[in-house]
């Protein structure tokens, strides 16, 4: 059994938001906290100043100094809160930037199978909606929520100095509301996780639907596709409404607590003033503190709810970051190709996908120079062979050697530097023509080399006629045809130093003229490199040095085109089938007499 050494050893990759928040921002975070404390102090001081102002009114003292001082404190507190909020927002955005970069880098380094399991839309949701939810931990949890709690405590302390009996009434009134809110908050986090999961599923389905849009339109299936998306959207709405119902209770419950407290304080305060246990200025200050207390208490209640949303998002990030990356593990560094060994060698390789056998005991050798073609009916396992060479997938058993070394002994970066790959979809990046050509180059060639590669695939004039030439961005307003995209992907191969070139159905969208040019290009590559091609057309196979006939996940026969025509009935059937483009008599004439 082959040991999969393509993932890292288990390690704790969980987000450490506290350390990341402080890292590089200690001074800004300290300044934000200090300004927030000053704002809190100003908030607590203003009602006491109002009390002094009432006393000044009753004693016929001058009002200029009390009013001026109160205004300065209020304005200073508001200014300090503004600056503190901006600094905190800036720190939070920088942290989210680092998080997004980390998550995107991690996602790009996941094994191909894991990316498919997660789904592109779900991964996109992590760096969009989940990241925004995580901001609440910074916005609320880092400073604002602790300061709101401090404000509540200090306000209660000052209120207890004014009248401790009324403080007990206040605490009792808000405690009833707090118990109800606590019951709600416990359920908020679960509902938010369900909401974000539903959002990721909708994003995944919509992404896949857009990718299939030409097919959907061709079969007039817009209504059906929209209906399916609507069902996913309905599930998201239901999850969102559950969360909204829970969170909508927080404000009214807190308001009810405030009203109970206000009525209780007015009644209790009136009785205490009647008994001469409380003066009018103190009662006025106490009422102001009560009204002022509602804001911080409500913020603590709602902030805990927001914090639950951020913690739910963090749990989804931790889940993603816990997935092992596609890395080298125990590979050997500094390997040198064995020039006497085959470029690629399979020894009794078997592979299954989700317990479904794809390859069974496949063995073959591809020399370091020459063209090896893989042919066979669809589903025979031809493309899987290429993905195993690239270590996109990993065999269940058997051995794969590349340039004389076990495929797992190669550091992944070195292996893929030695192997150039063009997939069936001839994938291009959404970027400039230059970006796509330089994708596999460690050192950027000059424009002359780029144009020479484009000339080799008959794309030079096409690219030069684009709106910005090599700097034209492909993928949106400007794009290439299927055949042109395929040739651009092949030009990218020409610019690499790869020893092995893997081509998966490279002629699938080429006309006869460009197919002939491709054959010449492949023949030229095969003079100095190993070229392995999954082929469905005779033009590729009939010049191959080595042809492997695959059927039902195994190698049925191998040899040259002529040898196989003379002895392999299945190969002859393939040649006679409609997928070959040349007349039967021309093909059969190449068999040995």
Automatic annotation (TrEMBL):
Task: Spell out where the chain crosses the membrane.
Answer: 29-50, 62-89, 136-158, 164-186, 249-271, 283-304
Question: Its domain of life?
Answer: Bacteria
Alphabetical list of CDD domains matching this protein? ABC_6TM_LmrA_like
In its keyword annotation, does this UniProt entry include Transmembrane?
yes
UniProt membrane topology term: Multi-pass membrane protein
What keywords would UniProt list here?
ATP-binding, Membrane, Nucleotide-binding, Transmembrane, Transmembrane helix
Which GO-annotated molecular functions does the record name? ATP binding
Entry annotated with the keyword 4Fe-4S: no
Report the residue ranges that make up the ABC transporter domain in this protein: 344-577
Name all ABC transmembrane type-1 domain ranges: 31-309
- Compartment(s) where it occurs, according to its Swiss-Prot or TrEMBL record: Cell membrane
Record-given protein name? ABC transporter ATP-binding protein
Species, as recorded: Streptomyces xiangluensis
């Amino acid at each position: 059994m082959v040991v999969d050494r393509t993932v890292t050893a288990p390690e704790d990759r969980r987000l450490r938001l506290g350390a990341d928040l402080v890292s590089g921002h200690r001074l800004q975070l300290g300044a934000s906290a200090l300004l927030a404390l000053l704002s809190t102090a100003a908030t607590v001081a203003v009602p006491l100043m109002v009390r002094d102002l009432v006393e000044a009114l009753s004693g016929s003292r001058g009002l200029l100094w009390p009013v001026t001082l109160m205004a300065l404190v209020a304005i200073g507190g508001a200014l300090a809160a503004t600056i503190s909020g901006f600094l905190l927002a800036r720190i939070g955005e920088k942290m989210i930037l680092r998080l997004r970069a980390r998550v995107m880098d991690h996602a790009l380094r996941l094994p191909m199978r894991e990316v498919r399991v997660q789904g592109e839309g779900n991964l996109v949701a992590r760096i969009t909606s989940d990241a925004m939810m995580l901001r609440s931990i910074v916005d609320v949890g880092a400073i604002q929520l602790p300061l709101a709690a401090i404000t509540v405590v200090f306000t209660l302390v000052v209120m207890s100095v004014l009248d401790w009996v009324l403080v007990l009434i206040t605490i009792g009134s808000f405690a009833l509301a707090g118990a109800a809110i606590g019951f709600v908050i416990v359920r908020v986090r679960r509902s938010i996780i369900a909401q974000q999961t539903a959002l990721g599923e909708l994003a995944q389905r919509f992404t896949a639907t857009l990718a299939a849009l030409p097919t959907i339109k061709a079969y007039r299936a817009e209504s059906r596709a929209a209906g399916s998306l609507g069902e996913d959207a309905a599930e998201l709405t239901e999850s969102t409404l559950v969360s909204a119902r829970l969170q909508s209770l927080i404000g009214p419950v807190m308001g009810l607590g405030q009203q109970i407290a206000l009525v209780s304080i007015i009644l209790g305060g009136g009785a205490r003033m009647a008994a001469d246990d409380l003066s009018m200025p103190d009662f006025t200050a106490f009422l102001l503190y009560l009204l002022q207390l509602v804001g911080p208490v409500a913020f603590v209640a709602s902030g805990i709810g927001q914090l639950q949303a951020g913690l739910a998002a963090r749990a989804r990030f931790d889940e993603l970051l816990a997935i092992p990356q596609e890395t080298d593990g125990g590979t050997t560094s500094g390997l040198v190709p064995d020039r006497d060994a085959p470029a690629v060698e399979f020894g009794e390789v078997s592979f299954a996908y989700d317990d479904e056998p794809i390859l069974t005991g496949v063995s073959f050798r591809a020399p370091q120079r020459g063209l090896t073609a893989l042919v066979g009916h669809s589903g025979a396992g031809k493309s899987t062979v290429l993905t195993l060479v690239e270590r996109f997938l990993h065999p269940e058993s058997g051995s794969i050697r590349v340039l004389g070394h076990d495929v797992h002994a190669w550091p992944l970066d070195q292996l893929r530097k030695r192997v150039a790959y063009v997939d069936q979809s001839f994938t291009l990046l959404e970027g400039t023509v230059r970006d796509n050509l330089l994708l596999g180059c460690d050192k950027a060639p000059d424009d002359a080399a780029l144009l020479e590669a484009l000339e080799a695939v008959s794309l030079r004039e096409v690219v030069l006629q684009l709106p910005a030439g090599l700097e034209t961005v492909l993928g949106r307003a400007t794009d290439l045809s299927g055949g042109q995209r395929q040739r651009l992907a092949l030009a990218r191969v020409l610019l690499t130093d790869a020893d092995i070139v893997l081509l998966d159905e490279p002629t699938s969208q080429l006309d006869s003229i460009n197919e002939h040019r491709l054959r010449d290009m492949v023949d030229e590559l095969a003079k100095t490199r190993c070229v392995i091609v999954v082929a469905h057309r005779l033009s590729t196979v009939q010049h191959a040095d080595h042809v492997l006939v695959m059927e039902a996940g195994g190698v049925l026969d191998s040899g040259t085109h002529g040898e196989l025509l003379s002895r392999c009935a299945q190969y002859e059937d393939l040649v006679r089938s409609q997928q070959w483009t040349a007349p039967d008599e021309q093909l059969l004439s190449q068999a040995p007499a």
